[in-house]
Amino acid sequence: MRLSIKQEIFCNYYIECGNASESYRRAYSCKNMKGTTVNRKALELLNNGMITARIKELQLEQKEKSDITKERILQELSGIAFSTIADMHNTWIERKEFDRLSKKEKSSIKSISTKVLKKNIGTRDEPEIVDVEYVKIELYDKIKAIERICKMLGYDSPQDVNVNMVSPMTKEEAKRIIEDL
């Protein structure tokens, strides 16, 4: 048994946006449906084994078309997680030229903004106004990158802990310990 055209469209939209309800809205006529109905119908589709199999098939096709691997993602995240603003500077005040930054250093930059302000470098009697360029470099969030790495590597999964349970103390034992103190 094959998928209907609308089911196939749903699967493709799901690959595109990752949201079942939004995919259902795009694939089916839902103008008169309540949001809860759309959510329920979308969940029903996701619970359909043929739909799930088709989505996995489409995901595998996308994965094979791209050169994105878990290792590559981990490398990118580790570049962000272990970057520092000091990497962008020669000294504490002199920043490196952008073209001198490594590819890894550049990929950790979220944004760069500049502004030019007038500054008096002369005296009150003999002012000398110059343009001073201020550069703000914002790096991607290190904590988010570290959290994502931990999740990918399973560091956040529950760990088995062996705890030797001590049997409860009897009243007589407690009394004896208190008297000894």
Could you outline the blueprint of secondary structure elements for this entry?
Blueprint: H1 5-17, H2 20-27, H3 35-46, H4 49-65, H5 70-81, H6 103-107, E1 109-120, E2 129-139, H7 142-153, H8 171-180
Antiparallel strand pairs: 1-2
Helix pairs in contact: 1-2, 1-4, 2-3, 5-7
Description:
With 181 residues, this protein is α+β, with helices and mostly antiparallel strands. Helix 2 packs across helix 3. The chain has a two-stranded antiparallel sheet. It is flat, with a radius of gyration of 30 Å. It has helices at residues 5-17, 20-27, 35-46, 49-65, 70-81, 103-107, 142-153, 171-180; strands spanning 109-120, 129-139. It folds into two domains: 5-65, Arc Repressor Mutant, subunit A (Orthogonal Bundle), CATH 1.10.10; 72-144, no CATH class. The mean pLDDT is 88.
The helix/strand series, from N terminus to C terminus, equals HHHHHHEEHH
The rounded distance between the terminal residues' Cα atoms is 79 Å
Largest sheet: 2 strands, antiparallel
Round the Cα radius of gyration to an integer and report it: 30 Å
- Calculate the mean pLDDT score and round it: 88
Output the strand order for the largest sheet. 1-2
